[in-house]
Each structure stands twice: as structure tokens, then as C-alpha cells.
Amino acid sequence: MAFKAMTIAAGLLAAPFLVPAARAQSAPPNTLVMLRAYDADNYDPAKSTARSAGEVAYMLADTLTSIDWDMKTVKPGLATKWTVSEDGKTYTFTLRDDVTFCDGRRMTADDVVYSLKRFIDPATRSPVRWRAGQVKEIRATSPTTVEYELSQPYSELPFQLALFFMSIVDKNSVETLGANFGVQGFNGTGPFCWVSWTPRGDFVMKKHEGYNWGPPIFNNPAPQVDRVIWRVIPDDNTRLAALQSGQGDATQYIPYVMLDSLKKTPGLRLVNQPNYFWDYFLGFKVDKPAVNDAAMRRAIVMAVNRPAIAKAVFFGAGDPADSYLNPQVLDFDPESKAKLPGFDPVAARKVLDEAGWVPGSDGIRVKDGVRASFNLYGISDMQWSRMSEAIQADLRRVGVELKVQLWDATVAWGKLATQEFGAFVMSYPYVSAGDALSLYFASANTPTPNRMNWKDADTDKWLLEARTSIDPEARRVALANVQRQVTEANVWIPLVREQLWVASARRVQGVRAHGIYGVGVYKGLDITVGK
Amino acid sequence: MRRLLMAVPVLLGVLLVGFLLMQVVPTDPATVRAGPMATADVVAAIRSDLGLDRPLAVQFALYLGRLLQGDLGVSIINNIPVAQELGNTVGPTLELMLASLVWSVPLGIAAGTVAAYRRGRWLDRLVMAASVGAVSVPVFFLGLVLIWFVGFRWQLLPFTGRGGPLWTRDGLLAIILPAVTLGGVFVGPVARMTRTAVLDVLGAEHVRTARAKGLPERTVVVRHALRNAMIPVVTLIGLQIGFLLGGAVVTETIFSWPGVGRLAVGAILSSDFPMAQGTILVLAGGFIAVNLAVDLIYSWLDPRVRA
Amino acid sequence: MRLLRRLLRDPVTGVALVLAAAIILAALLAPWIAPGDPAENDLSLAMQPPGEGLLLGADDQGRDMVTRLLYGTRLTLVIGAVSVGLGGGIGAALGLLAGFYRRLDGVIMRCMDVLLSFPAILFGLAIAAIFGPGVLAVVLALSVATVPLTARIVRASASVEMGRDYIEAARAVGMGDRRLIWRHLAPNCMSALVVFATLRFGQVILLGAALSFLGLGAQAPTAELGSMASQGRTFLFFAPHIAVVPCAAIFIVVLVFNVLGDALRDALDPRLGF
Q1: DSSP strand pairing (A401-407 vs A373-379)
Q2: Are the beta carbons of C43 and A305 separated by less than 8 Å?
Q3: Quick one: which of A62, A81, B107, C130 has the most CB atoms within 10 Å?
Q4: Burial A483-517 (b: 16+ CB within 10 A, else e)
């Protein structure tokens, strides 16, 4: 009797299986479903620095300038052209006159002034307001002209203005929503408009009717899809399975191990951005025991097998770094590359021997009572877990002990702001040599982001020179000096340069990998969704 | 009624434990909110904005006070009201747990009963082995295997989150895989407990009497044996709900299910005190409520026990 | 003993017993019987499937899976044993006190209710955030999660025993409380405790695996079955052996202890309520 009940139950349970239904949740008409791994806390462009905020912000809002696919050339955005004064301190931007916000209101120079001033206002608490330069005054001199006055020249300004932090937003919307701007609603001039946001779930946007002022780097300045949904799928396997089974259209969040097989999957298209600047490095706290010894740092750089690590951890989606910065980046100094020692564990041991680091009974070297041992802090994710394990093993082979302590992303930032560690690992995006170097090597930026506690007067002098010079050559020379200096001092171990790959499903056309600030799909223009 | 009153200090205790625990967690929400590129002065400014410097006792008292007025506070990371987030996530988690129980409990009871009736024979062995086996696999493994084969290889079911309310086709289909993954943990213990309990009861006085009276086997089973056998099973379910929550966090992550589990994890790790407290309140409250219900069902099943 | 003979009567239990002994022995002897070093990596061998040379293949860092399996089982068993031992010990003590002293019963059990209602996995997260992820955090979290359950079981058993004649008799003779609890009450609650501990062992291992899934388990390069399984899941569809081997090991260990627990319960007292 129980048997009968069980059979009936089994039959009922099996019924839904008889109907192939995976596609019910997929492929909504003319909607682009972007898949990603994380959500952002907040979509107010002035308050967040997360890539997951940026990829959305670029679709909801526009910036004054844009960056071309070569990642070096600045192109028009909301500003059609700009001029610089002789002393390099005043920029005059001419704006388009046909731009509207999502609510229909026409955008004017007042909105630009408001948005930029809001960004640099300390009360807004933007973590990166320094990107705006030393601003003296920003004013609207006509409905389509903005004067941006600095107290010191800042040649990187047009570049920095392309970053999503300086998106132009609607003053009324900000004032109405207050702290909920970017959380409950948003009003920008972007190709898509805010519809809804379910935290940790879907972010839905719809086409901004009438939008046709996309950056000239695109073939078609108007959006071609009706809706965009950014969907969070935290688990790597699930995300890829979703892409491959048609439950998602495109993603840049691909576990590297799957890259090769994805390239071979029929029906999936993979695009790459060769000029992508997102680097992985290990930084030493130069004032901590053991690693305060320059010889120790040099030996460690030589002990780490960067090519093998890149291959094993990134499966071809990353190139071993042989310089502090990517050679394609603006103001890269080729000579500094020569100063970075290559992989040579035998030489590493020699350096340590000569510097007086004697191997102890447990194999770990000691000098003047100090053990060659320090701890490493970092974010706990698949790449760092595996890379730090490999580095740990490499260091053990030359008699140095590395204690690895990786933290979950949300706890990690707090931990990385302390002085509890001797070394840390980090990855970051940058747009130019000046961007990267001033972020990490300026003494004013200790304890974070300059977690190495690198305080050098010469470095600061050169960084200031670079930031304020009007002559691009002078800037290049100053930055070259910094690169050579820090490379010689082995403040970092540059590890891997990540590649940017964006995978898209068969029904999607026009996906191209951009890469600004790590964002793969920029603005969602030129993309069409078939049937 | 007395049970209900006793639940209150327990809930308070849970809140206190949660509060103290969060205090000891060294995450600084200001740093989380500021992000990786922030300089120290911005972080300090945000920290003072959030007012994280008042004495503990005061903070807890304020929190309780607001709680009694129905105000759960807002997230200190993104300003969204805790009540709103909870409201959006409690439903999906409840759905998931319900869907898991709906298939695993009857199946477990049926399997256990069958095993009891065929005690010692191969069917008994098979059922017991299967139920023990089902509880011996890590939840995430089961979930991933299901996604790979059922979701991706055979393209039978969706697996990227909630498809809609349970009464819609999309919603129903989307909940199947997560419910199977989560419920799998349940079937085993329920089957084993049912088998033991039924065996126990089948030998008991009143069942033998019923049989002697010549009542049909079916009545014997349902009316007499099962009813008493359900007592320990129901107790077990109440206790296991706690384990279900642990598995729910993992299941929600794998299937991108928008539930309280994921919310709680994120809140605790970023030291989002109000949100973390809110989720703890909901989860603990749910657990206590379930156990209260268990007690009530217990007294209904066995009139000899006072409620 | 008689118990052992009773257990061995059933072939399934016999097999389980032998397996359990084998597993524990292998784990204890790991440093001597393992072919290599669990932390020694060789990136050129990364992800090699099982075959000649590497019986169970290599993981994503090129480490030998057999070695990792042995050391991993060892650590997992230790974590399980310590958690159940610590949590069980404290819980049993509390349960005995609650069962013996009526006055303490209410307070103790309410506290246990609080602990029980607090979701174990969230507790684990908080602990890991405080102490940093790793074995210590996992053991602490699992121990704390075990205390209230044990207390409940022991208290229920103790309550029943308290109503028995021999307790009355011992009291009449003037026996002191401590002696009464230790010499008479405790031993009679043992059977429930032992069965629970055996079953709990398996549950604790699985809970540990769940914590590892959230990244809180043993950190690199420590070999532990739960963290190995969790870290291997990214490669599940490419080099399945990396996750399947530890998962299978977890499965066998948990299965064996579940079967043993059931058999023990059947042998000692089939009427036990779990």
C-alpha cells in the first residue's frame, strides 16, 4: 500500500521534468542579459569605486570625455571639444546641446558643474576625489561651456574625466532622493535608464528613448536593445553553465580555467582587449622586519617563478609581468624593465647568503636574530589562494617563510588598512603610469592605498612634477624616474597582467571588450540581440 | 501560552549574542563602504558619519528601543531599510524551505514506513542505505552536479535564481533544483526516524489490539501506528530546521537564490550591524517559531502531553 | 566484549567497523605511509588526471592527491573528534547538571535554546571574521554548535535516570552529589551520549565542509577534506578528480560513522529518540 503511494508521488514529481524548461527563464526578446559575479553596494557614481558599480554607471550616465579602444586616446563624450590655457591651469569644455536626462529635461552646463563639484565636495566622501586634480573653481560660462580651473596643471584631466566617478547626474534627482540616490533611483543622461535594482539580484534598465550621443568610438551612437538586465550569479560554475545554456547573454567574469574550453565552444563568441591594464602584484611593507632589507626583497623577487604561476593560475588568461606597469600604458618606461630581476632561485639564494641570511635548523634563514618570516594579507578568491600558495612554496625553496592569511573581500579591506602584515597582494586597474604610480607610491597615501609605507622625497617630487607638468615629455621623464627607482628598490613583485575576455552567446552581436577601469562591456552600444 | 512567553527571553538572548559577536568582529564598516582606493581621511570621515563610536551598552539599548517600535534600522553599507531587504528575502527562503520539506518529508515518512514493514529484508536495507548515503554528501557537491547534468547538459530546468512566485510556471520550475538539493539532506533522517518509531509502535499494545479486532491493515497503519510514530519524527524535523538553514546558505549561493542566507552572510562579513541583527532575528525567530509549532503538533498527536 | 560481538553479527556493521578502523589507522600513519609532502607543489603536473605515477592524480597546484587525501583525512578526523569531544564534553556536563539539579534546569536549558536558535553557520562566519579563517575558527564554531544538542540529549537521558530507584537508594545511603553524578548518573547516560557522538561526528564534518565552501576553512596549503573539496569545485567540470576525491572521502567517512552510530543505537537501546 505504501508502494502505491510512493509510485504516485514519484510520478507527480517527475511531471515537470517532462517539459524542457531551462529556456523559460532565458532569452527574453530584445533584452540583453549581462551576467556578473558581484553586485555593488551603491550606484551613486560619486560614492562607489567598485567595478560592478562602474559597469552599470556607464550605461546609466555619461562622462565629459571617453577613451578609445587603444586605451590611450581621449575622445569626445558629452564634451565635443576642449582647450587648455597657456599655463595649463584652465580647461574650457564645449558641451553638446542635444543631451537630455532620462526624465526628459535638457542637460546644460549647470548640470555638469553641479555633478563635478558634488564629486569633489568632501561631504560627498568620494574615496577618489583626488582624480579631479587640484580644483580652484568650476563654472558654467554659457549653457554649453564649462570652465574648469585648477590651481596646478593636471595634464591627466581629460583622461580622468572619462572615468565613471565623474558622471553627470541630475541635481533634482539627487536632492529628492538624498542618500537613496543610486540605491532607490537615478536620473542620468546615459543610453539606458534605471528601472529597478534588487540587491544581490537583478539590475534592470530600459532604453533611453532619443539617446544618440554615444561616444564616437562606436559605430552607432544610439542603443539597439530595449532592456538590459545585469544578473548576479555568485558561483562560477553556475554562471558559465547559464551562459552556455542560453540563460545569459554575455559576461566578462569567466573563471580562467574555463577560458580555453569556452573558446572552443560553438555558439559562443570570445573577444579580447589587448590594451587592458589590470595588474596583480605583491607589495612589501618596507619598514617591517625581514622585508625592510632590500637584499631580501630582491632575492624574493628572484625566487618567485612568475611565468609558471601565470600559466598555472591564469591558464593563459594572464601574462607574467616583467615590469611594474604594462608596456602599452601611457608613459611606460622601457628602461625600468631591465631593472626587474628575472626568475633565478640559485641567484636568489646567493643574494641571501651574501647579505648574511643564514639558513636555520628548520630551513628558514636568520640574520641578526631576525627570522626570514613574514605574513601576507590579501583577498580570498580563487586566483589569490592559488597564487599565494605557489609563491609560498617558491619562497620556502630559498629559505624564506611566508605565512598566508587571505580574507573574505568585505573583511579584507579593513585588514589591509592595518600595519599587521609584512606583505600584501592586490590587483588593480589603471589608466596611465601617472594614475598607477601616484595612487600607490605617494607618501601622502599611507597607510592606504600606499600599503608599502613607501615614503621617499624623490618619489614625491617626481610625482608632483608629473602631475603638474604641461609638457608631456617632462611628465614622461619624471614618471620614468619613479619607475626606475621603485623597481630598483624592489618595493613590489609585479606578478601577472590579466587579460580581458568577454564571452557572448550566439544570439548577441556587436559585443566588444573595452576595458576602461576594468569594465568589459562599455555603455552597451553597438550591441544587438537577435530573435 | 507558557511556551510562547518563554520564547521571548530566548529571542532576547539571541539578539544579545548576535550583538556581542558583531562587536568583536573586527571589520570596520566604514572601510568597507569607502572601498579599496580610499585614503585614511575619507574612511575616518565616513566612520564618524556612521556614528560608530558610542558605548556598546548604549548602542544595544538604542537598538532594542527602536526594535520595540518596529524599526529595524537601515543598512550602514547602502542605506536600504533592513525591513525592506528582509521583506524581499524572507519570502524566497521560506519558499525554498517549504519546497524542500514538501517532497522530502512525505518521501522520508513513506520510505521509513516501508522499511519498517519489510524489516530485515532487502528493501529495508536498501532504503536505509540510501537514506544514510543521502546525508553523507556535501550540499554544494550535490547542487553543482545537478546543475551540470540536469540544468546544463540536458537543459531540463533553470538554475539561475528565482523565476517568480511559486504559483507561476517559471517560479515552480526554478525552485525544483534548489529544493531537491536542499531537501536531500532531510530524507535520510526522516526515513530513519520513521522506521524506528513505526517499529516501536507496531509492537505496542494498542496496535495489537486493533489488529486483533480485525481492523484492515490500512487503518491500523494510518490511524494508530503512524499517528504515534509521528511524534519523534516531528520533533526531529523541528531540530533539523536548524541544519536546513546551514544548507540553505550554500544552496542559495550556488543557485543565486535571493534568500535570507546570502543576505546574512554578506551582512555579517561586512559588519553591517543593523542588517546582521535583522537577519539573525529572523532566522532565530523562525527556528523558535518552528519549535513552538512542533510542540503544539506534539500535544495534538499525543493528547497525554499537555501543551 | 559482548557489545562488539553483537555489532559484528551484522555484516554491514562489521564492514563499517573495519573501514572505520582502517580510515583512522591510515590517517594516524599518514606521515609515514604518504608518498610525498602535502605542500610540495610542481606546477608542471597541475591538474593531471589519475594515472600511472599519480594514483589519484594531481591537484591544480600539482600536488599529489594521494598524499593530500591521507593528510586531509587526518586533519578532518581530528577536527571532527575535537569538535565533538569539546562540544560534547561541555554539553554533557551541562546536561547532567540540568538533569540533576532542578533549579538549574530552566536556566541552563534556556541558554541552550539561545545557542541552538542561533544559526550555526552564521556563528561560524562571525568566529572566522574574528579569529581569521582556518582550522581554529572551524573547530570553535563546530564545538559551539554541538554543545546545545549534546546538552539536550544528556539532560533528557538524565531526567529519565533521576526517576529511577537506584538514585533514591544512593541518596538514602547519604551519597554526596558529586559522587552520585559521577559514579551513577553519568555512566547510565553514556549510551545515549555515545550514539549521539558517533552520529554527530558525520554531521560535524559536513558542517565543516559547508564552512569551507564559504571560504572559512583550512587555509593554504593545509590539506583538509572540506577545503579541498570546496577549492576543487571550480575545476569540477575539467579535472573532476580534484573535487571528487575529497568528496568521496568525506562521503565514506560520514557514511561509515553513520552506519556505526545506527548499529550502536540498535545494539544499546533501539528506543533512543534519535
Answers
A1: parallel
A2: yes
A3: A62
A4: bbbbbebbbbbbbbbbbbbbbbbeebebbbbbbbb
pLDDT value at A8 more than 60:
no
On the question of pLDDT at A279 being above 90, the answer is yes
Which pLDDT does position C220 carry in this prediction? 66
More confident residue, C59 or B218: C59
Q: Give ipTM to 2 decimals.
A: 0.76
pLDDT band at B302 (very low <50, low <70, confident <90, very high): low
Which residues of A, range 249-308, sit inside 8 Å of C by Cβ?
Answer: 255, 257-258, 261, 305, 308
Q: Extract the C-alpha cell encoding B3.
A: 511556551
- Select, from the ranges A416-425, B137-146, B193-202, B250-259, the one with the highest average predicted confidence (pLDDT): A416-425
State yes or no: cis peptide before B106, omega within 30 of 0.
no
> What is the average pLDDT score of chain C?
83
Residue with cell 583512522: C24
C-alpha B99/C-alpha B152 separation (Å) is: 22
Query: What is the radius of gyration, based on Cα positions, of chain A?
Result: 25
Instruction: Give dist(CA B229, CA B231) in Å, integer.
Output: 5
Compute chain B's Rg from CA coordinates. Answer: 24
N- to C-terminal Cα distance for chain C?
A: 25
The answer to whether the Cβ–Cβ distance between B246 and C210 falls below 8 Å is yes
Q: Are C86 and C66 in contact (CB under 8 A)?
A: no
Q: Suggest the residue from C23, C107, C125, C196 to mutate for an interface test with chain B (most B CBs closer than 10 A).
A: C125
Q: Please indicate if any CB of chain C lies within 8 Å of the CB of B232.
A: yes
Q: Between chains, do C213 and B250 touch, taking CB under 8 Å as contact?
A: yes
pLDDT for B293: 81
Separation in Å, CA of A236 to nearest CA in chain C:
7
Contacts of C60 in chain A (CB under 8 A): 257, 312, 386
3-state SS of A467-511 is HHCCCHHHHHHHHHHHHHHHHHCCCEEEEEEECEEEEECCCEECC
- Portion 123-152 of B in contact with C at CB < 8 A: 125, 128-129, 132-133, 135-141, 144, 148
| C43 closest CB neighbour out of A257, A390, A392 | A390
**Pairwise CA distance, residues C116 & C110, whole Å:** 10
Q: Which amino acid is at A105?
A: R
Query: C35 burial class (0-12, 13-18, 19+ CB within 10 angstroms)?
Result: exposed
Is residue C250 over pLDDT 80?
yes
d(CA A93, CA A115): 15
Q: What CA–CA distance (Å, rounded) separates A133 from B303?
A: 78
Q: Would you say residue A298 has pLDDT above 90? A: yes
Beta pairing class for A373-379 and A423-429 = parallel
pLDDT band with cut points at 50, 70 and 90 for residue B240: confident
Residue A417 pLDDT greater than 90, yes or no: no
pLDDT at A427: 92
CA C223 to chain A, closest CA, distance in angstroms equals 12
The per-residue pLDDT for C1 is 64
What pLDDT is recorded for position A21? 43
d(CA A140, CA A49): 27
- Whether residue C234 and residue A382 make contact (CB cut-off 8 A), yes or no, is yes
Rounded to two decimals, the pTM is 0.82
Q: Where are the alpha helices (DSSP H) in A197-258?
A: 236-244
Return the amino acid letter for B159.
F
User: pLDDT tens digits for C101-134?
Assistant: 888 888 888 889 888 888 777 888 888 777 777 8
What residue in B sits closest to C202 (Cα-Cα)?
B136
Distance from CA of A286 to the nearest CA of C (A): 24
Nearest one of C214, C165, C222 to C188, comparing CA atoms: C165
Q: Which residue of A has its CA nearest to C231?
A: A382
